[in-house]
Amino acid sequence: MSINQSTNYAAATGNAFPCEINPSLSITTLAEGLVIDDAKVQFRENLERIYDLWKSMVQKYTLPSTTACNDPCIVKVLHDLAGDFKNADASVSRFASVLSARLMDSLQSRIKSDRRARKVILRKRADSIVTDIYVNALSSLANTAAARPQAFWFRRLHKRRTYLAGSAPLLIIFYTGKAERIM
Question: Source organism's superkingdom (predicted)?
Fold first, then answer.
């Protein structure tokens, strides 16, 4: 294969969007491919179920603000969220992802504030400490040696999903499988 010859691997594997295969299509076509068809109708019909699922998960996984950053219940909550993240139901998986990212962000800010208040003196960055806690939660689910790279990958995915969800996490369930691969 020469350098001048272009290869579209996405088109060859079937993971391409229509506008990648046919350049005459617009970015609007791409955007329409990211959201499921009839998203408004499905949201209206399933609003109660979606809200109940979100509410129960938030109640189950929200920790009190007085929880210390070295409390073992944090590892248990992250372990349970990791189990929900592997759920076959896309809405449960995506909600668990958003809640995991929020929990890790709040834990990271707690560690930083404890360090400023001189309650804890650690030689690692707050981000590394949170990753270590997440590795401990994942290591009980999988091989310990593979847990650290897996934790980095999951944290990136959780952050992307949280960013995509924005201030309305209930709407994250309406993205397609192609949008999921982009995340």
Answer: Eukaryota
Residue 144: the pLDDT is 67
Same domain, residue pair 23 and 60: no
Beta carbons of 149 and 80 less than 8 angstroms apart: no
Distances from the Cα of 169 to the Cα of 4, 14, 116, 132, angstroms: 44, 29, 31, 26
**Helices 72-85 and 39-61, axial angle in degrees (round to 10):** 160
pLDDT recorded at residue 75: 87
Q: What is the largest CA-CA distance in the chain?
A: 62
**Into how many domains does the chain fold?**
2
Those residues with Cβ within 8 angstroms of residue 101's Cβ, 6 or more apart along the chain or in another chain: 155, 158, 159, 161, 162
Residues of the chain with pLDDT under 70: 1-36, 120-121, 140-145, 176-183
Residues 58 and 134 in one domain: yes
Long-range contacts (CB closer than 8 Å, 24 or more residues apart) made by 127-132: 129/69, 130/104, 131/155
- CA dist., res. 118 & res. 120, Å (int): 5
pTM for this one?
A: 0.72
Question: Do 16 and 59 reside in the same domain of the chain?
Answer: no
